[in-house]
Amino acid sequence: MVKKKNEDKKDIINKDMTIGEVLQIDENLAEVFMGFGMHCVSCPVSQMETVEEACLVHGMETDFVLKKLNENVKH
Question: Please, which contacts does 24-28 make with residues 24 or more away whose CB atoms are closer than 8 Å?
Fold first, then answer.
C-alpha cells in the first residue's frame, strides 16, 4: 500500500479554530488564506472568526480550505 503525502500526519487545524489561532500555529498559513482571497488575516475580526465562518463568508468549501491549511502547516 502506497501512503499519500501527509497521510501519517494528524490534522491540527480544524473548522472551529479562529483565524488568529491558526496563524499562531504557523504564521505562514496566511499565504494559504490569501491565496483563497481571504484577506481576513489582517482584519481584527480574525481573532474571533472561525475558519468555518470565514469560509462561509467568502463562499469557500470549508473541508477544502482545511485540507490545504493542514497540508501546508509546518510542525
Answer: 25/73, 26/72, 26/73, 26/74, 28/72, 28/74
Domain ranges of the chain: 19-72
Q: Phi then psi for 50, rounded to 5 degrees?
A: -80, 165
- Tell whether pTM > 0.90: no
- The cell for 43 is 482584519
Render pLDDT for 27-65 as a digit per residue (tens, 0 to 9): 999 999 999 988 878 888 888 999 999 999 999 999 999
DSSP per-residue letters across 4-39: PTTTTSPP---TTSBHHHHHHH-GGGHHHHHHTT-G
